[in-house]
Amino acid sequence: MSNGIAWIGAHSTTDKAAAQPGMLGGISLTCARDLDADEFLIALGTDPDELAARTLYKDLAVPVGRPGKPSPRVNPVMYGTCGDWVYVLEDWGMATWATGYRTVESMRPAPDEEIVCVTMNSWSPPQRLIHAPGDGRTWQAEFGESTGADSALDTALHAAGAVFPSIGEVGEAAVVAYYEEHGPRLPVAVFTAVGNYCGLSIDQEAVQAGDLPAVLIPMV
After folding, report:
1. What is the DSSP letter of 63?
2. Which residue from 20, 47, 134, 195 could staple onto 114, CB 3.0 to 4.6 Å apart?
3. pLDDT tens-digit series, residues 159-176
4. 1 pLDDT tier (thresholds 50, 70, 90)
5. How far is CA 100 from CA 107, 142, 203, 205, in A?
């Protein structure tokens, strides 16, 4: 893959630039396999008419708060498709699906729907990987762990070096030392694993330029 998605992890701690037309730093990713892109975005709360407009991210008008009125509780997101997957990119600190899949009926994965989510959890650490493999269950792991499902995604995490030693394996002191030395590469490893598992490639230049379609999604 020429672009892959490892670059998202590489910029996980990059500050969000106010003047930037697109996204780069602190991006969360949600992707769903074999789901219609419009249906998935509507399930996340997108307005169908807004979705039909196919507005590019760089041209999307985001409502701003007005004196004496509540601030609009929406976030702009970018989306696209790659192979069998539809993906959603967000840089407000979290992934909407991760915040709502337990409580919002439309976001709950059906038994035949596979969803992979990498949420940066800027407001509620730690960073997490969530996997709904399509069997009615949902698995999750903090960065540095496998999901425990012994799945193909877990195999990809191990292969990418995204699973670090545990206290039970090597002891607390060794784990702390390992995280201090290798922790900075964790986001790259996680996004590499997810990209390899999903066969996902997202053009960094297009995302930075805001050249992908976008919609507003309400905060959950």
Report:
1. P
2. 134
3. 999 998 877 778 788 878
4. very low
5. 7, 18, 27, 30
What SS3 class is residue 111? coil
Helices (H) and strands (E) in the chain, counts: 9, 7
Tell me the two tokens of residue 59.
């041209």
Name the E strands within the chain: 28-33, 74-82, 85-90, 114-119, 128-132, 139-142, 214-218
Going by C-alpha positions, the residue among 85, 90, 103 that lies closest to residue 40 is 85
Cis peptide before 184 (omega within 30 of 0): no
- Between CA 178 and CA 164 the distance in angstroms is 8
Neighbours of 29 (CB within 10 A): 26
Q: What is the mean pLDDT of residues 136-157?
A: 95
